[in-house]
Write a structure and sequence with these properties.
The chain is built from six helices and no strands. By secondary structure, it is an all-alpha fold. Helix 3 runs antiparallel to helix 4. The radius of gyration is 19 Å and the shape is elongated.
Length: about 140
């Protein structure tokens, strides 16, 4: 086993290590930036029951369906990426990415799941701390 490990490590060059570290830094920064942007842009009442979530309500049915399919596909991708980023050693904000993916999905019980995630004190504290840095009102939960 140790011979195999040594053989594999012998194939890794300094350039490979630099590339891996660079990819780690870039993917971490991009995921953090995108997630931060979205969480800051959300209206403070987004997670309240009274907040309307109708997507493309004033569009033609074909455009609405295409938008809904695209939105849900992006939601599934974000949930899967969030799960991947939750693994130690993988860069990114796993739980926040999962939350953003869930927000895009149109499945029954989604508001209850969002509420369960947001009611975790550390998650809500981090999101509201980020919103405070950009002078945005904190998220209001039911």
């Amino acid at each position: 086993m140790s011979h195999l490990l040594l053989a594999i490590l012998g194939l890794v060059t300094f350039g490979d290590v630099i590339l891996a570290v660079g990819l780690f830094v870039v993917t971490f920064a991009v995921s953090l930036g995108v997630i931060s942007f979205i969480l800051v842009k959300l209206p403070p009442t987004y997670f309240q029951e009274s907040h309307s979530r109708t997507f493309l309500a004033n569009r033609r049915p074909a455009a609405r369906w295409a938008g809904l399919i695209g939105k849900n596909a992006l939601g599934v991708v974000l949930v899967l990426l969030g799960i991947l980023m939750s693994i130690p050693g993988i860069p990114g904000q796993g739980i926040l990415t999962i939350l953003l993916g869930i927000m895009l999905l149109d499945i029954p019980g989604i508001r209850r799941l969002e509420s369960k995630i947001l009611r975790q004190p550390k998650v809500l504290e981090k999101i509201n701390g980020l919103r405070h840095k950009f002078s945005k009102a904190p998220l209001v939960l039911d």
